[in-house]
């Protein structure tokens, strides 16, 4: 391995700017790393070496000619495979889209191209981002770089593992109920879910339209901020895109003091139900906040007890409608049964063959939640719970500037566990779902290793809508405090990737 | 107390245009039953007049000017289709519903 | 299928009360589609006015066309509706290959306009108040072509082809409340109402409003109940009725069909029925059932449509006169009798006559040609006059030729049919065919003398004061001149002769 891949994105950028490495060299180093470990990790569904190297060469040429380049020009990146890319397949981890090359780029991918970032390839995810382990990918699971027989979290396990295993310095994720933050927690990386509408969803294959949000995946807070600033901003192609500029995350991620900052601990998301080692590290971090000058207050969000139930009605309902377009007519798989079937039969056979069990389960559940006679009891009630949860957050943010909790109740569990038990599986997102329901921004940070298993534990920071800058300023302070305590970065504890026992 | 029966699951699968095997029907009936039961607690939670939230960040009146933007070429439009003919998407005959 | 048995219309009305309800879809004439920037022009090469949004490709998102919203508000105001201060779009979920996303983005419980009403006059001169329940915005579907089998028809087709150029074209759906008490005039009322809506959207310039092109489409709900009965009868919804004439025929047909079934102890199935212009019948389509569970929910990819009071009032102020006022104004300007004017309206001739008068013809002349020769032709072909191959300018030119005495009415009719045959403009045709009236007295005198030679006693009779005797000669002369003579002039010349 060329050790350059172990550097932070910012360090790699400095080398590019100073000319001590070319973008082609840097991109090749990551392609080599992919060749070295992705056979085991399986973070990528598709690697676009030629495309990435072509962009890299263009950047090197322009840099040599003295042209002024975008800030992140030449820095390679990986993209979750539920964002459309005009030059490589986009499958959303589903058989029904196998080999589909979209005729358009998602807005975020257009921004990466404008920034001249070589796109290494598309990363693995649970089919249509439905899942929290990446085991529901139709193309096989992704392994956790820390322990390859364990889940990397999901749905964005591919992006988190790619960054965590040094196959990419940065990656794009999407977060509907925790799909950026939960994998970050499982892989000792950093992931941010911005405020709903802060990043354009145009070209993101929709799961839960009122919950989905694209965000950065990185190995530290500063790097996440670099990418966040590139992808955020208004887009007239997305009616729910925020019109206002939420400011520079990079300028917020500067560490420093937390004097006068109130950090609220969410009572309902601590203690019972959380793995001992996770709670221990969490409490240590509260001490670090105090040491940095912050005041710790306890806040209560009683409605969170309904969050998962509400989420698993709203999300399937919206998904059942969003996924109706996968019907074999205009794109994607077509299965034609024996005899000369009608189009109705072709659609039903295609969807049976093309969708995996979790997708079918949620489509049918969502169809139920919306069907006449049940709407008010289910979808309707769930939308009201959303209001209650927003009120809980409003009350909590009246007392605190940021809220904190562990990102996940446990560390990474073994591949194959809980796979036939949806309810148990759904609990993985207990701490991340409320932010999606309320539309507020959240960040997951590495929080040390749990004593029981030596696997990454994590802490989640939450801020009021449009206040993601708080996540970066408070997050960067905690990160520095951790590095002072540990003497190195969390990612440096990661063992070298090897096939699981 | 779950209303989810195999018949319900089959009806829903029909509405969702998904063929389901008997095995799937049994599995989904059980699993959906559990989820729906847990969802039943919501009704009580929102008794009283709580407004529904369908957009997490409320906005209104987001419009496009009535100006023509670039469309796809016919070739690009048809590029992903399993079958096309004379510039159109080709599909199996439609059940007689007119 | 076997032709349904019908009850005699008068009998049907003696026995049953007719209740109708009308859903009119108006296609807006915006430059672009409802939710994307593709051209609102589906006559083009198939699948060339499409994009990820209207093709329903994964990841695409809709953005509402501002002009479509303003048009919807104008229509709502023009039919007396209130405008919702906070309306929303909703998804209507059902699978059909012409529906790119397999849901139609429409409006459900929060339409942009609601609770309106219009006064509609039928041929008898009676007027009826039609209550409007709502007008909402939605998108059109793509176009299916069924290939194989008895081609063009869905039954027995081997496969179908889909063109999404029309997918996403903005539609306004206007829904009436049930209309009672029109009795025997229910079919005329249905047609008159749709004509009224057409006049409204044309005056607003928000739609081309050409029924034959599907710019205005009507679904007619018809149900019967015994006179005095409380409960509404089961209704059928007749679709794809695309001319005013067929609306009238279709409603009448359903009344007679349902009456026969009910009178014979049968029951009406709630279903959509399809109008067959050719046979003049309706046939059963899909029965409406619980399977039609559209699972409506608020469109999460769009935000509420919340027009400000200011915008609504601004649009209200911009409204043109309503059809009733316009009719009053035109009748006075043209000086038509009530009967004349009603015939004009019911024949759908107001617009062409207005254009013809604007092109310089006298109102009476314009009326004479449009409600005479042209209307007759339209009826013969079962078409709308707008579909015939003749323009207001051509009719005005024709009227001018007659006015100037260059041709007479009989020749005029001949010229007009030539125009409708696409042989050119009236002037060209007259000169090409040498139809101009002979005004050369020399030629006329020659013909007159020839005729007088055959009837020598005529001059004597005239001298004795029996002027009408000239008639015999006039007839002969006109014949000799193949009609291309001004009878008045011929008469004068004969009398001159008698005076010599
Ligand atoms: Mg409709
Ligand atoms: Zn389009």
Explain briefly what this protein structure is.
The complex is a heterotrimer of chains A (501), B (98) and C (500). Chain A has 501 residues and is of the alpha/beta class.
Notable characteristics:
heterotrimer; A: about 500 residues; alpha/beta; B: about 100 residues; mainly alpha; Histone, subunit A; binds magnesium ion; binds zinc ion
Could you explain the architecture of this structure?
The complex is a heterotrimer of chains A (501), B (98) and C (500). Chain A is an alpha/beta fold and 501 residues long. Chain A has 16 helices and 11 strands. Chain B is mainly alpha-helical. Chain B has a domain at 6-45: Orthogonal Bundle (Histone, subunit A), CATH 1.10.20. Chain B contains 3 helices and 3 strands. In chain B, strand 2 (84-85) and strand 3 (88-92) form a beta hairpin. Chain B is flat and about 55 Å long. Chain C contains 16 helices and 15 strands. By secondary structure, chain C is α+β, with helices and mostly antiparallel strands. The chains are: A alpha/beta (501), B mainly alpha (98), C alpha+beta (500). Chains A and B meet through helix 10, helix 11, helix 12, helix 13 and helix 15 of A and helix 1, helix 2 and strand 3 of B. The structure holds magnesium ion (MG) and zinc ion (ZN). The site of magnesium ion (MG) has 3 residues of chain C, from loops.
Write the layout of secondary structure elements.
The complex is a heterotrimer of chains A (501), B (98) and C (500).
Chain A: H1 9-18, H2 23-41, E1 44-47, H3 49-64, E2 77-80, H4 107-114, E3 119-123, H5 157-164, E4 171-174, H6 181-187, E5 190-193, E6 214-218, H7 221-231, H8 249-252, E7 262-266, H9 276-291, E8 295-299, H10 307-322, H11 343-354, H12 357-370, H13 376-399, E9 402-406, H14 422-426, H15 433-438, E10 442-449, E11 456-462, H16 468-486
Parallel strand pairs in A: 2-3, 2-4, 7-8, 7-9
Antiparallel strand pairs in A: 1-3, 4-6, 5-6, 5-10, 9-11, 10-11
Chain B: H1 6-15, H2 22-45, E1 63-64, H3 74-78, E2 84-85, E3 88-92
Chain C: H1 9-15, E1 16-27, E2 64-65, H2 66-78, E3 82-83, E4 90-93, E5 103-106, E6 113-121, E7 127-139, E8 143-147, E9 159-163, E10 170-176, H3 186-204, E11 216-226, E12 236-241, H4 244-263, E13 271-276, E14 281-287, E15 297-298, H5 309-317, H6 323-334, H7 338-346, H8 350-358, H9 363-381, H10 392-403, H11 409-420, H12 426-432, H13 441-454, H14 457-463, H15 470-480, H16 487-499
Parallel strand pairs in C: 12-13
Antiparallel strand pairs in C: 1-10, 1-11, 3-6, 4-5, 4-15, 6-7, 7-10, 8-9, 11-12, 13-14
Bound molecules: magnesium ion and zinc ion (ZN).
């Amino acid at each position: 391995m060329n050790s350059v891949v172990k550097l932070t994105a910012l360090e790699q950028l400095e080398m590019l700017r100073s000319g001590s490495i070319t973008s082609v060299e840097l991109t090749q180093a990551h392609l080599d790393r992919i060749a070295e470990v992705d056979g085991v990790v399986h973070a990528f569904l598709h690697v676009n070496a030629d495309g990435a190297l072509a962009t890299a060469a263009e950047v090197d040429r322009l840099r040599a000619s003295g042209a002024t380049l975008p800030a992140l020009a030449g820095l390679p990146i990986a993209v979750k495979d539920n964002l459309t890319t005009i030059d490589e397949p986009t499958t959303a981890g589903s058989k029904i889209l196998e080999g589909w090359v979209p005729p358009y780029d998602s807005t975020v991918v257009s921004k990466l191209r404008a920034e001249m970032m070589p796109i290494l390839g598309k990363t693995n995810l649970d089919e249509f981002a439905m899942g929290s382990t990446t085991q529901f990918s139709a193309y096989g699971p992704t392994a956790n770089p820390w322990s390859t027989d364990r889940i990397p979290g999901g749905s964005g396990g591919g992006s988190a593992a790619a960054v965590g295993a040094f196959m990419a310095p940065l990656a794009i994720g999407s977060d509907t109920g925790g799909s950026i933050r939960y994998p970050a927690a499982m892989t000792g990386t950093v992931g941010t879910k911005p405020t709903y509408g802060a990043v354009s969803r145009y070209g993101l294959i929709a799961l839960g339209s009122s919950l989905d949000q694209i965000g950065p995946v990185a190995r530290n807070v500063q790097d996440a901020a670099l990418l966040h600033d590139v992808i955020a901003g208004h887009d007239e192609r997305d009616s729910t895109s925020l019109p206002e500029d939420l400011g520079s995350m990079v300028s917020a991620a500067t560490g420093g003091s937390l004097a006068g900052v109130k950090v609220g601990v969410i009572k309902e998301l601590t203690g019972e139900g959380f793995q001992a080692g996770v709670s221990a590290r969490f409490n240590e971090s509260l001490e670090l906040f105090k040491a940095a000058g912050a005041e710790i207050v306890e806040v209560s969000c009683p409605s969170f007890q309904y969050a998962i139930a509400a989420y698993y009605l709203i999300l399937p309902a919206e998904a059942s409608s969003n996924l109706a377009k996968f019907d074999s007519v205009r794109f994607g798989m077509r299965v034609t049964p024996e005899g000369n079937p009608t189009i109705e039969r072709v659609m039903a056979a295609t969807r049976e063959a093309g969708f995996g069990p979790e997708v079918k389960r949620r489509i049918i559940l969502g169809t139920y939640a919306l069907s006449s006679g049940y709407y008010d009891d289910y979808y309707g009630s769930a939308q009201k719970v959303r209001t209650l949860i927003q009120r809980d957050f409003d009350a909590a943010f009246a007392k605190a500037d940021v809220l904190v909790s562990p990102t996940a109740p446990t560390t990474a569990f073994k591949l194959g566990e809980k796979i036939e038990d949806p309810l148990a599986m759904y609990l993985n997102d207990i701490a991340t779902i409320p932010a999606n329901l309320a539309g507020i921004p959240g960040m997951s940070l590495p929080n040390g290793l749990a004593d029981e298993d030596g696997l990454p534990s994590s802490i989640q920071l939450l801020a009021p809508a449009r206040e993601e800058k708080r996540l970066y300023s408070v997050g960067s302070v905690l990160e520095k405090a951790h590095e002072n305590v540990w003497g190195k970065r969390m990612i440096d504890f990661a063992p070298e990737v090897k096939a699981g026992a | 107390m779950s209303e989810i029966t195999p018949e319900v699951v089959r009806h829903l699968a029909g509405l969702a245009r998904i063929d389901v095997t008997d095995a799937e029907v049994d599995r989904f009936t059980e699993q959906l039953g559990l989820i729906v039961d847990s969802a039943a607690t919501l009704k009580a939670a929102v008794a009283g007049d709580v407004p529904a939230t369908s957009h997490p960040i409320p906005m209104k009146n987001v419009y496009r000017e009535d100006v023509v933007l670039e469309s796809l070429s016919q070739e690009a439009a048809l590029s992903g289709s399993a079958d096309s003919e004379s510039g159109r998407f080709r599909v199996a005959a439609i059940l007689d519903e007119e | 299928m076997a032709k349904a048995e019908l009850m005699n219309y008068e009998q049907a009305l003696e026995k049953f009360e007719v209740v109708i309800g009308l859903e009119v879809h108006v296609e807006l004439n915006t430059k672009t589609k409802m939710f994307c920037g593709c051209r609102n022009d589906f006559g083009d090469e198939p699948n060339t006015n499409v994009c990820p949004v209207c093709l329903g490709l994964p990841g695409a998102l809709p953005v509402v066309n501002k002009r479509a919203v303003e048009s919807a508000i104008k229509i709502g105001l023009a039919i007396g509706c209130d405008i919702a201060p906070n309306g929303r779009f909703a998804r209507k979920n059902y699978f059909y290959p012409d529906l790119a996303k397999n849901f139609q983005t429409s409006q459900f419980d929060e339409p942009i306009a609601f609770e309106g009403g219009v006064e509609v006059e039928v041929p008898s001169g009676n007027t009826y108040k039609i209550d409007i329940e709502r007008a909402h915005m939605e998108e059109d579907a793509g176009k299916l072509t069924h290939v194989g089998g008895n081609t063009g028809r869905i039954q027995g087709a081997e496969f179908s082809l889909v063109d999404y150029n029309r997918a996403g074209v903005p539609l306004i759906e206007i829904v009436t409340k049930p209309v009672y008490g029109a009795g025997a005039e229910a079919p005329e009322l249905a047609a008159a109402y749709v004509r009224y809506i057409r006049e409204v959207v044309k005056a607003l310039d928000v739609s081309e409003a050409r029924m034959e092109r599907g710019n205005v489409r009507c679904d007619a709900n018809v149900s019967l109940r015994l006179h005095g009965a409380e409960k509404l009868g089961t209704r059928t919804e007749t679709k794809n009725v695309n001319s005013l004439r067929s609306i009238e025929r279709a409603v009448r047909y359903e009344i007679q069909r349902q009456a026969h079934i009910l009178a014979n102890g049968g029951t009406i199935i709630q279903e959509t029925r399809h109008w067959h212009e050719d046979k003049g019948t309706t046939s059963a389509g899909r029965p409406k059932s619980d399977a039609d569970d559209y699972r409506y929910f608020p469109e999460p990819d769009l935000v509420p449509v919340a027009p400000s009071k200011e915008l609504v009032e601004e649009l209200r102020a911009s409204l043109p006169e309503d059809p009733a006022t316009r009719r009053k104004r035109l009748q006075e300007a043209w000086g038509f009798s009530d009967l004349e004017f009603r015939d004009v309206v019911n024949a759908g001739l107001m617009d062409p006559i207005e254009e013809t008068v604007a092109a310089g013809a006298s109102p009476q002349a314009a009326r004479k040609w449009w409600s005479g020769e042209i209307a007759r032709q339209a009826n013969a072909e079962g078409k709308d006059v707008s579909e015939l191959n003749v323009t207001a300018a051509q009719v005005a030119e024709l009227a001018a030729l007659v006015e100037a005495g260059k041709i007479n009415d009989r020749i005029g009719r001949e010229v007009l049919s030539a125009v409708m045959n696409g042989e050119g403009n009236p002037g060209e045709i007259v000169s090409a065919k040498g139809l101009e009236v002979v005004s050369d007295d020399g030629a006329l005198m020659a013909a007159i003398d020839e005729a007088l030679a055959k009837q020598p006693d005529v001059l004597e009779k005239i001298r004795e004061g029996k002027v009408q005797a000239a008639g015999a000669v006039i007839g002969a002369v006109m014949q000799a001149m193949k009609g291309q003579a001004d009878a008045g002039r011929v008469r004068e010349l004969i009398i001159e002769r008698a005076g010599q």
